[in-house]
Structure of DOP1 N-terminal domain-containing protein:
Amino acid sequence: MNAEEVELLSDSKYRNYVAAVDKALKNFEYSSEWADLISALGKLNKVLQNNAKYQVVPKKLTIGKRLAQCLHPALPSGVHRKALETYEIIFKIIGPKRLAKDLFLYSSGLFPLLSNAAMSVKPVLLGLYETYYLPLGKTLKPGLQGLLTGVLPGLEEGSEYYDSLVCQYVDTNSLICVINM
């Protein structure tokens, strides 16, 4: 827990937020099938959205682990899409500076997903990379190898994602800037 979170603990509304996150995370423990995971993710999303004013996500290590578990290749694409929705909510809340600091927490589930993702999941995942990861610039460097290892094998030459991703990033020099760090 960092100094900012310790300071926030004096706020009773923040403590209620932490308790609500704990309660939402308990739902994952009682999940026995994929529909339960979607429900648990929905409850977590609601708690996060209702407390977005704090720009801090409590229990982020546990949340990162649960999200990574929800991206397991054996789970259906509906669970993956709901988990990606949760990632997006978190990334909006914490902003780029905190994302760069906590890159390892959230990337462990995201990076291996693309090669096993359903067609409906790939554009959402690539959108997360484009919107939240590439703008990190030099602060992405510690996770660059994982990002490239996850993205490159997942792109099949000739697919709609390959052409749009390569052309878009080469044209804007975004990916080249990241690779040339």
In short: Residues 3-172 form one domain.
